[in-house]
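ok trying again, last paste got cut off:
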Amino acid sequence: MAEFACASHRAYVYLRGGKGGGRFVAELTPLAAVRWNRIRDDISQAEAVIPTTECCELLGDIRCILHELHLERDGVPVWEGPIVRIEYEWDVVRIFAEDVLWQASRTVIKDGYDQSFPNIGNALDRMDWLLRTQVYSLYGDPWHVVPHLLPMFNPAGGEPKTSRAVHAWQLYVLTDFDNYSEHSGCDYTVVNRDIYYHDTHLARWVLPQLGDHDLSQFPRIVEYGNSLATRGIVGDGQGHAAVVYGDAPYLNQDQYGIVDWLVANNDDTASAVSDAPPTIEEIQAWETAAERAIQDRYPPPQAVIVPQNATLMPGAPWTIDMLIPTAWFPIRIERMCRTLTGWHKLHEVNVEETPDGGETIAIQSADAPKRRINLP
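nice, full thing came through this time. structure:
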């Protein structure tokens, strides 16, 4: 099994479109420092610091948005995206960049849509429509991103649904796209130029087990009693509701009994509340939402908490290509009063290389859902 080891970086400038659609400009050398990250459900960022001793003329010709920053780590591409800020100092130039979702954050939806009942649709289909038709192919794909749009569907179907309605010219595309990660049970992440989006329960990448000895700081175990729920309720606030129960053993009074979790059934884009009773289809949708709301809440969830600034130790069983936010991995804690092996999802990776400090790779992760969907 491969193990994590420190490495060094190189930085390059390309015209917009990168290797597939743009043109190579130059290497940024010597590279004084580099920082980059990958993150779940957000835009990732990078920074390169270059002394002005060798390529000052080149550094003066770089332009925001027209040029991209590309990073390699020991010859392996690890990050790329448009340059969004350049800071010229006396002895160094600092180049800041964001990943290719930057364009989605600066493009407004030109075609509205309505998926309110009975037009409820697949959230991943809508996410793909947003990026594909409302951003990257809209003007001929000058960013060369369309081949890198990678929706990942569940093998047996059953992706999250959406009932959103959005008007034309109402939102930036990324604002609406991000809504599906916040409210519809979807995840997204960018790796180099590839944009992945999928059900938050889909285990697209599964990493080897991480032990407490693989981290620079010791994790802790936490059990959350206030997150317990054995009954889920979704209603319209007018006396109509769908009620679902957890597994029978947990409902006994010598166990946890009935502990409720009420889900507000509202949407900031929904139409005005009607006095009509809900339809059978609406009740079924509420039942699905209530079941999803409590499925991870009984028994009381317990989690391994990895300190935010914990770094991977040399010898950890991961390599740089494995560090993809949304990847699942087991983590085992043995040297505490309670031994626990839990599943985590990688949330963020932060990489920094400096001449005086070498390279550090810090990770952030979160407890994974109890329900997991595996690829064949």
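cool. Residues 280-294 form the longest helix (15 residues). The chain has four domains: 9-100, 104-200, 210-224+300-374, 226-294.
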